[in-house]
Amino acid sequence: MSLNIKVMPLGPISANCYILTDEKSRESAVIDPGDFNEALKNAVKDLNVKYILLTHGHFDHILGVYGLKSFTGAKVLIHKLDGDCLSDENKSLCSWEYPGKQKKMSADILLSDNDKISIGDTDLRVMHTPGHTKGGVCYIDEKDKLIFSGDTLFCLSAGRTDFPDGSTKELFESLKRLRDLPGDYTVCPGHNKATTLDFERKNNRYMRAL
Questions:
Q1: Spatial separation of the C-alpha atoms in residues 38 and 9, rounded to whole Å
Q2: Runs of H (alpha helix) within the chain
Q3: Which residues pair with 154 in a beta bridge?
Q4: DSSP-based helix, strand, coil % in the chain, nearest 5
Q5: pTM higher than 0.90
Q6: With contact defined as beta carbons under 8 Å apart, do 119 and 26 qualify?
Q7: What is the pLDDT of residues 121-145, one digit of tens each?
């Protein structure tokens, strides 16, 4: 595996923040910084952080973006349908629980399905997986068989669809796309522990219902 992966639960709901680093080039990407604290600052201070990759625009996954971008100069990437979440705390749901805590900003790159993102020698493919939000995505490393699934797929569960812009129909269509990927993958979700796609195919009640 060419990527070193570090996971740090951050922010008000302990969302999983992933730091991906190419061992050879030291290029890095940070996925879903829910906070920018001393631990994350120390973790990235010696890295060349190229991208901040967001799986979706909910506040618990983005509250660290402003600080991390200011510290590293990294480009912020989010799907085009969730881009407004970075500047609107009502769309990010931050106003529901932490009004005034979100700093407004905009994305550097708005993503679409099947876009490719390079970190050193590794390519991540963007899979648009709406359902939890309109612009939810998974980042897929097909070489090393990794899926960073955000709040689309969890160990033995799946993302909620009762928030604004959620859709149970779209979530099941997204889960089907993940289920139908060839072979097994390690699934690195937005909350709780890692799992595998084969395990979820067999045991996850949402996938079994497809």
A1: 13
A2: 38-44, 59-62, 65-72, 94-97, 168-179, 197-203, 205-208
A3: 157
A4: 25, 30, 45
A5: yes
A6: no
A7: 999 999 999 999 999 999 999 999 9
